[in-house]
Amino acid sequence: MIDMSTTQASxxxxxxxxxxxxxxxxxxxxxxxxxxxxxxxxxxxxGVIATRACVYWVLAAGLNLVVGFAGQIAIGWVALLTVGxxxxxxxxxxxxxxxxxPYLALAIAGxxxxxxxxxxxxxxxxxxxFYFAITTLGFATIVTQIVLAWASVTGGGVGVAGPIFPAxxxxxxxxxxxxxxxxxxxxxxxxxxxxxxxxxxLTAIRDAEVAAEANGISKPGLxxxxxxxxxxxxxxxxxxxxxxQSYITPDAFTIDLSVLFFISILIGGRGSILGPLLGTILLxxxxxxxxxxxxxxxFLYAVLLLAIVLVMPGGIAELLDFKSRRPLExxxxxxxxxxxxxxxxxxxxxxxxxxxxxVALSFGGVRAIDGLDLTILPGQVHGLIGPNGSGKTxxxxxxxxxxxxxxxxxxxxxxxxxxxxxxxxxxxxxxxTFQTPRIVGEASVLENVMIGGTxxxxxTFVESLLALPRHWRDEKMLHETAMLxxxxxxxxxxxxxxxxxxxxxxxxxxxIARALMLRPAFLLLDEPAAGLSAEEIRRLGALVVAxxxxxxxxxxxxxxxxxxxxxxxxxxxxxxGKMLAAGTPAEIRSxxxxxxxxxGG
Amino acid sequence: xxxxxxxxGLAIGCVYALIGIAYNVMYSASRVFSFTAGTLGMIGGVLGxxxxxxxxxxxxxxxxxxxVGGALLGVVTExxxxxxxxxxxxxxxxxxxxxxLALIVxxxxxxxxxxxxxxxxxxFNIERNSFDQQYWLPMIACVVVIVGLELLYxxxxxxxxxxxxxxxxxxxxxxxLPERNLRMASYALAGVIGALAGFASGQMLLAFxxxxxxxxxxxxxxxxxxxxxxxxxxxxxGLVLGLFQQAANFLVGGIFASVAVFTVFILVLLARPDGLAxxxxxxxV
Amino acid sequence: xxxxxxxxPSAAEPLLRVTGLSTGYGKVGVLRGVDLTIKVGEVVAxxxxxxxxxxxxxxxxxxxxxxxxxxxxxxxxxxxxAPRETVQAGLAHVIEGHRVFTQQSVVxxxxxxxxxxxxxxxxARVEEALGYFPEIAEKRHQRAVAxxxxxxxxxxxxxxxxxxxRLLMLDEPSAGxxxxxxxxxxxxxRKLRESGTAVLLVEQLIEKALALADRVYALARGSIVLEASxxxxxxxxxxxxxxxxxxxxxxx
Lengths: 601, 285, 252
Hints:
The complex is a heterotrimer of chains A (601), B (285) and C (252). Chain A has 601 residues and is α/β, with parallel strands linked by helices. Chain A has helices spanning 2-12, 14-41, 44-69, 78-93, 102-121, 129-149, 151-154, 172-194, 197-207, 209-214, 219-245, 255-268, 274-289, 297-311, 315-319, 341-345, 392-400, 445-451, 461-465, 469-489, 504-516, 534-549, 561-567, 585-589, 592-599, and strands at residues 160-161, 247-248, 354-363, 366-376, 381-385, 407-412, 415-416, 430-432, 522-526, 553-557, 570-575, 578-583. In chain A, a hairpin with a 2-residue loop joins strand 3 and strand 4. The two termini of chain A are 53 Å apart. Helix content of chain B is 75%, strand content 0%. Chain B is built from twelve helices and no strands. In chain B, helix 2 (37-54) packs antiparallel against helix 3. Chain C has a domain at 21-97 and 166-251: 3-Layer(aba) Sandwich (Rossmann fold), CATH 3.40.50. A six-stranded mixed sheet of chain C has the order 6-7-8-3-9-10, with helices on both faces. A four-stranded antiparallel sheet of chain C has the order 2-1-4-5, covered by helices on one side. In chain C, helix 3 runs parallel beside helix 6 and helix 4 crosses helix 6 (149-162). Chains in contact: A-B, A-C, B-C. The B-C interface holds B 157, 160-161, 163-164, 167-168, 170-179, 284-285 and C 62, 64, 83-84, 86-88, 93-95, 97, 99-104, 108, 111-113, 115-116, 159, 163.
């Protein structure tokens, strides 16, 4: 059965999935061939430029995961280049202890860089965007000043000789191949990550942080790993840089260089590997074509950055994305297939009940929820209605852990949820959707849905980095489940399309498909019908009923009274944070007080 | 010795406070922190030196033109780097657009003005003494700006309108206030304040393009520690920062003073992300 | 305000005519082809369940939210106009949630509403607006944060009156107010009608709104589902029916 639905789906878009992978790899292969054969047709000077581009890319590839994927505005990454350059040079030169072999020095620099990467990156977990940007800039300044001051080790303003790697890498082209090899490995590794659950989780943190957390993605855990990796590649690039320069002084590590790395990633486009790679090559090579402009290069980079931000936020990657220019079918309809749900959600035994006991929460003196009791049973649809500000979404947010109640407790099967971190809800199989769909616009519909299954992957970050077997197994499993979830909500024909090209109603169904990836015991839907047409609401209703029939308990917050009365087993009416009434739809409809409160009265 | 540390500390602290106020004035009008804050200070110093020393204009004319230049840069910031990205504040594009503009101005200055620090003229032709004009000019500038802003915000209708868009932009628009013009005016005002800081501290910091990133960083420290949008907090934190930096400079040497400032800044922020005075405004229901 | 009579549109032409108005937030459509008219000096209630788009409609009319369709007011085309232009045209919008400027005094709040008036007229207009609400006139020099929620709502309405609008749009003026204060605000609406000011009222208190208004529109699922004179009998039942029972889901 699974096979049937996936083959069906791939038959629907054979070109997207088949040629897509090849299409993505082709430009990289072309670059690989050019890189390998470069000495055959380029002079020595171009060898130096190409080596520099490779060194820069080793850093930019790692930084790309931080900036382009995780969306952290890390401007001062040159600090880590400096750390790597000096660690390698000083250890290889033997300034403090007996000289080490250059490879060993380079490896140690990688470790030191990884640690420094976490130190530089860590404030991102706590600080607002601009604050983080400023602190990374501060780091860049501080490291240079320390290097200047610590003259006994670093040579201060006089500098230190860079390492020379032994044969066969001691000639100009030899060293080029060494750097090119490392650059190719970095490309391969980051491309592996980009296509893994970790890469998708990073883009989710960037574009839809709350949704990432609701799907069990731990932002601190993932960012620390990425900072480690990015710090290591930056420091290794530093060691290569020192060797390329043959002699380094603090002047070599200007903030301009940092800006170059940062801008080449943004010019390339967020969430892409090829784009930033081309961006790095472009910015390295560009000044060579316009020698008189060398003094103006940083100025031009800045102009380019401004232009990119204002005119073309997608960068080079978007320019190259021909697939997304093909028009979509305009009269497409979402036709869910509830019959697939049983297979998707499995036959888990009774998941118990979700209860709220006397939950209370106020914001600055205003009681948003005031002693609320609620019991949601598996296999039932529980409606939650009430006027604006009556506490419906707040109730959802308490269950999902975005708010900690000041009184009372939420329990699943007797286990208190309120003490858990919010991303732990996903492991308890509690899934949710949002009032405004939280999706990654630049990722495909399929990738967005796969984000929902992140916690079901078994491979580690390193396994994905190196594309080891468990990585492939995870990818296959997530791909199949996501296609099944998409078929269930009726969007499988759009699997390969960029999510931001879809209509609003389709985004709502993507969110439901993503939530289904968790095989939820309980599903919290926050106004899923808002902005849907009458026909779509009807299909949504049927889908929600089918989800509940598969055993999932559904909590439905909705304004559309007709939908509530049509599909709910049980309805709770909130007013001013308190329960006004509860009962079957029929009871609620004849409840005078409810009609008044709901209509206003 | 102690006297000179205190004087230079207070003087440089006043400059940081003024740049912090420039950050705040822009932030209040648009909820955006702009990387151009330090550039405004740098441009005040460079323009002062350009008009007075290089072009030989009288001091008063150079002063006014430097402030006009700051105001222009403020308006350009608003039009080029802020207004186009205001609609999508949550994407934080303003961080990139204002950074780009700051770099553009900074690099242009480096190339067209000088990559080295250039002298800044003496403003008043009086003899040097221990309490020299290079110390008291920034202090006077700081007092003038604080008093002037207080009068503007408390006593004039335009000032009330500034406070209104800072408190509730949506309600201000619904009331028919010219929100866009007020925002531009705020950026012009921030430009004047920044340029004034640069001009007043010209003799201390010289006319040097690389002052821009330094002021951008050290001017932001008072904002982060004093609480964003909080001018009083910025002034107190700016003065403390100046004194601390100068004292550390004297006690442990210049480079480790910067490291010390940075370390303290990071640690305080990690402990209190909203700043020391950080009473964030209550949630509006 | 009889002095305005000279430039009022002719009786045949309504003061406000909204035709085919559609809008939403981002990709989410909220209003689909709304038609609505308000005559000079008329009090119109706009009712509807939560999420129907009442507040959105007011925002679109006053220019706080971009929209498609046409909005003509007192013979002027206001489609695509900025809020400032609609205010200057005589259309005041008192937004929901009594969002006054809490750190400024009552008088300063009102002076802000008079921002575009000639300097000499401002304080007279402020006094005129305060004349409607003696409760807050007493506290004219206190900061608005010191006012009760009801007094803040009065201040917000007073802000709307400073411009002497021809049409005042009130968004849930009763929310969070005690019944006594609600009656005070509604009394002011009656006074306004007597002076020829039209009022478009979004209200949760249906019975009070129906007692006050001349005409009523009901909005549900982004469209006008009912338009009636409040003189009609059986209106509450028709309203309830319009809210709940007209959707395709229930019809099946």
